[in-house]
Protein: Strictosidine synthase conserved region domain-containing protein
Amino acid sequence: MGLKSKLFKASLVLMLIAILPGLPPKTVFPFKPISIAPVRPLTGVLAPNQLLNGAERLHEGGLQQPEGVAVRGNVTYVTVYGGKILELGDQGSVRTVAKLGPECVGTYSERICGRPLGIDFDTKGNNLIVADPYLGIWQVHIKTGEKKLLVSKDNAIIEDGPTTPTTATKQSSITARQPNIPNAVAVARNGDFYWSDTASDFLFEDAIQAVLCNPSGRLLHYSRADGKSRVLIDEVYGANGVVLSPDESFVLVGELGGQLIRRYYLKGPKAGTHDVLIDGLPGAVDNLNGDATGFWVGLVIAADQSNPSFIAMLAPFPNLRRLLVRLFVLVEAPFRLWYDTTGSDFALWVTHHIGHLGGLVPLFPDRGTVLRMDWEGNIVFALHNDDTSSHVISQAVPVGTEHMLLGSPVNQWLGRVKLTPETLATLRGQKATTGTQPKKAATEPPREEL
Structure:
């Protein structure tokens, strides 16, 4: 058989895998072209700098994947691999506040033992609210470690906004589907909280497949009074960080895949509607956290004109994305069956690594970036690094009077950088640089362009 014949047959097989109906996976939304705004150039306020270079490594080797960070006074709380929430004292102490799941059997068993991501302080009691993509959303008492499951992944009560028996439709039942990847939380003054569900088609450890599918993430509101969640925005492309405005008139959710931030109005004439606060950001948006004058944006995967996002490059090509997803599923299927029938550690290891976004980290650009934005959507300034001491940043949280902590989904330490006097002065003045106005807020785009 000649080379041309072999290539033709291989191409035919791949084409059939891509287009034949009925093959796995069955996704919530069909594969369609996705439109992602071009990334903003790294000029002006976004120009490269070295303000995050030389990050200190706190508790190196002792913090595995410190994704979420919350600071109160001299105490820092971090979420780490293995279902743990840790308390870090200012004298170097480390205390386990709580453990959400069973013990891990290795660094590949997060779907069993947990990997908490988002964290925020409760406003109704001395608790932390913690989101775990495998174990749900929990209330954890800071002192005693007492745990209470608030949002289950299997039995959550999800509502598609206000509906009546005559307006309840098949689409409503889709929107109100069970959560799959609880990711971030933002607690309101009344104790309710807003949270993100990153995607519905794959587990967190299969993030590559998840971002290749059409957007199926959501922003939701959880009512503490009745234990129910309500969907605010559906079809968010990798719903990630969540933050409330100081007056709680709107809530923001970051999009990892879309490289943008969406705004949902809670009060005023636009209440119940949403738009795009800003798009074209130079990286995949992870956690958001705010204060009275603005908020911080961690960009977990850098993207620019020289280093385009692989998600954005593939977004317009639904058949190619479907082919890639199906190939991942077909390769992983026998190992999943092996693990399900025998409990083999090796099979668990293989299924964990196939499709895990962490495997692509060596391919990520070296740049690490944190954005400071005001509540109108202006970029106030950008902090970058080019020495990889703090790239792959999940969250940026000021601590003390002149430092910033940098969480990461891949590092074995918590980063800390000293802010320059100029940065601190800008924070105190909080004036946006000329030319940083966001693109005009858009009304809800067509579904296929989310």
